[in-house]
Automatic annotation (TrEMBL):
Bilayer-spanning residue ranges: 12-31, 37-62, 83-102, 122-142
Name by which UniProt lists this protein: GtrA family protein
Organism ancestry: Bacteria, Pseudomonadati, Bacteroidota, Cytophagia, Cytophagales
UniProt keyword list: Membrane, Transmembrane, Transmembrane helix
Amino acid sequence: MKAKLKEWLKRYGPAELLSVAATLAAAGLAFELTGSYAATALAGTWVGNGAYFGYILALDILQARRQRHATGLPYTGRTLLRNLRALAVEFGLAEVFDSLLIRPALMYYLPKALGSLSGGILLAKLLADVTFYVPAIISYELSKKRLRRF
C-alpha cells in the first residue's frame, strides 16, 4: 500500500499544488472583478481544472514519449489520442460530478458560510477533492494495464 500511495502522490501531488494556486488566483480575481460568488465559483473550478489536467496530460505525454522512444517508435497523433482516452477513462466519471456539481456548489457556498473568500475556496477545493479522488484512483488503477502501455 505504501508503494501505491507514493505512486499516487507522485502523479497527483504536483498537479494538486498547481491547481490550488490557480484556483485561488482565479477565484480571487473573479471576485475582485465581479463581486459575484457564482462567477468566483466557476472561475475557481475551471481554471483550477485547466491547471490540473494540463499538468497531468503533459506528464502522461512525456511518459508515453519516453516509452515509445525507448522502443524506437515515434510519438504520433494517434498516441496523443490514446493519452486522451486514458485520461477520459481515469477522470471522466469523477470529473462530471466534480466540475458540474460538487466543486462549484462548495465554492459558492463555503466562502459565504465561512465569511472568508480564500478560506472558503480552499476548504471547498479540499472537500471536493475527496469525492473526486476515490473514483479517479480506482479508474486509474483499472486503466493502467490496458490503456497506459504505449
